[in-house]
């Protein structure tokens, strides 16, 4: 599925979310900003992992402590366990995101699962300080309002619980109010979160059947379409859906006045693709580019 | 699905494609370079999985070369090829390789060594103006706490949280207050106390830092509130004639802890100030730059709080003489001042 998906992604990803990174070599690389939904999903995955691990550690430490208390009441070992518990909770809260985002993938397990990563906004190196800054902010955005909320709802409730909710919402919805979908932590760290799906190299469409070229298209027939149509045709050929192929072959057939014999649409379209590409590429060598059928 | 299985089969069999037979020039271009791209992809994948041991020395040496050639292939392909699949592949490949080559290469440990060896103190020095403002605010907060309680002791309950106040209430006798400053011979439970103090204080400091985001004002308010409590307690002990003992009791860990609180407030203020007054740079750039500087200071604050918690949990309970407490607190303060303002070995912190 991955193959088909990554092609679909190229064409469907909203133009508004596309950015360009310029490498030190002067190569421009397109990057797509991760959507709000993707990031929420990644966060939920992370919280589930993080929560489960913390819970397991806490429960096992408590069980251990109970047993220790039983055998040697209030021994120094029990004290060590409580210290361990307090410190491991602290380390988990701040360490989990920090550790994974400083790794070679620049992503927590949740981000990795959803194919996104943290990157420096200026196109340079992702610095250690940036990762620290964005994760310290996470505390105020996420953990503290929850903490306040639970304290407030256990005690006085009312205004304080409401204030905690407003606080949480302001930070949670912050990414929706800037075009780069940055949360407050990204803003002060100089980072953003971008999509980073790995694409597999698939065989060139034009190499599928060079030996058996059946259909020949004339110069006038090939002059109708441009690069956009070529790209779409490539995608359709890769998806290889019989119905779509038939419809597309019929459309092209009527447009250029040379229709495909029924049942041989794939061959017809493949040949059309190869010859259209040859023509458009040879035009490129002379500096002529045809964007789409309207240009 | 049919198309995909066909691609996979083709890849597995790996039939050598006749380059010369390819009709299109762009296909020949691609076929000539494909092996290098796939090799680069393999190396990058291993690096991403942090499995450097699986890579040979040749792979590591060739990585920059392969990256540069893939990058130039991409540049050429953009001008000569309309093979959307190959272009998309090259774009993701070059981006992944770029992340590995320009990623955070230095390990956390290397970073930490640089941080201790100059990065931290340089970051603290670059916040000097914010530190001065935060210090003034802290002094003002203490004064406000003192004056409020001096005027009306009802304020004490509002300024000092109940759990902290326990026996130390207005109207409590001198003996009770004196007892609360005593040390204890028993070490039992002190490590729990210290670790609790640490995680509690660290959370407050991180809060002070992160609230700087709202133009620094909440950070300052937090400083005022925390120090007003201190001022109130100071008044209480002054009233009982125990000023020196109280300050000694406080200073043993307080010089480190209050210094850490000062730095976290200054870090928050630094971010807020640079966002409110970005100067020449854009708000975004200014926020990012100050955020990174402040983050370094904050890592240091967490370290200082660990030390403060140990001093508070153990040192204060075990050392009960006033001169002894003054000696420890004073030398800690001297140490921090020397480390931050006299220690300039390198300028790593600024360039990192």
UniProtKB/TrEMBL annotation, chain A:
InterPro entries reported in the protein's UniProt record: RDD
UniProt entry tagged with the keyword Acetylation: no
Keywords per UniProt: Membrane, Transmembrane, Transmembrane helix
Family annotation (Pfam families): RDD
Localization (cell): Membrane
Main location, first listed in the record: membrane
Gene Ontology CC annotations of this record: membrane
Parts of the chain that traverse the membrane: 40-65, 77-96, 146-174
Domain RDD per the UniProt entry, residue ranges: 34-190
Topology relative to the membrane: Multi-pass membrane protein
Keyword Membrane: yes
Protein name, entry field: RDD family protein
Organism: Altericroceibacterium indicum
Automatic annotation (TrEMBL), chain B:
Alphabetically ordered keywords of this record: Membrane, Transmembrane, Transmembrane helix
PANTHER family: SLR1478 PROTEIN
TM helices/strands, residue ranges: 127-149, 193-213, 220-238, 258-276, 297-314, 326-343
Secretion signal span: none
Protein name per its UniProtKB record: Stage II sporulation protein M
Pfam families reported in the protein's UniProt record: SpoIIM
Organism annotation: Altericroceibacterium indicum
InterPro entries, sorted: SpoIIM-like (IPR002798)
